[in-house]
Amino acid sequence: MNMLYSLHPKPHCYFIFLNKTILNFGTYFYTVPYDLLMKSNHLFLLLTIFVALLFSSCKQGNPYGFEEITGKITYNGQPTSLMLAFDPLDSNNSQSGGSALTKKDGTFLMTGQSGLKHGKYRVRFILRKSYWKKTMKPVEETETDVDRTQRVLVNVLPEEFTTEKSKVEFNVTSEKKNIFNYDIISDYKPSENDIKSKKVQHY
Prior knowledge:
With 203 residues, this protein is of the alpha+beta class. The chain folds into two domains: 2-57, no CATH class; 69-196, Immunoglobulin-like. Helix content is 26%, strand content 26%. Strands 1, 2, 5 and 10 form a four-stranded mixed β-sheet that branches. The chain has a four-stranded antiparallel β-sheet with strand order 4-3-6-9, with no helix packed on it. It has a two-stranded antiparallel ribbon with strand order 7-8. It is elongated.
């Protein structure tokens, strides 16, 4: 009955199940003859694998090595919605990159397997804004009710923030909270060629 009952363990990492299982196996090993017990070596192997998997599933901490990243990005002191990308710089490390989208208040969160592994990363930013293709002027928030068929999305950041030329770096560690706050200071404005070369975005 104990074994049947233990097949329906309750939470808390199956500790109740494990205790009852070990107790039943212990009773079995004590009462079965030695020669029969030795013929059941595969049982020991199965039990060992079972216990290893059990404790592996209950393992606390960060088994995959992904660290949570939080922070806030501002553009000339103002919160903005953009995308930031983390490119690994440690060639001798197996960490992969990642990316995140900021909210309107500039905050972002990378957690679980969306987080980053330990190491140094280059940070790039992608910030696009709408421009009128004919006038080549930025679309104001108050112009939401006008014709949208002549808008183009243009990157408003220079290459020093958007490409591998970026000098912005961030080191991810497990020794403290990984908080990345950054204010993008730039007076860059897209050129007329940048605006003309973009395809019209049909909303």
